Amino acid sequence: MDLTYLTISQAADLISRRELSPVELAKAYFDRIRQFEPLINSYITVTEETALAAARQAEGEIQKGNYRG
Length: 69
Fold this sequence. Notes:
Layout: H1 8-16, H2 22-40, H3 48-63
Helix pairs in contact: 2-3
């Protein structure tokens, strides 16, 4: 399944059920950016490390039972 085709509602549901991690989802989007950015040239700046750090933090909070939705 291509995670980048999930709706935000579908992704949120999978994350809340711990079937998908925020890190997995973020990595899927960055893979897609790397694949298509040379063709579409739509980003000025991609902050992958910052986004992955935030995803890791969210994942840690979810594992502690603090899902924010």
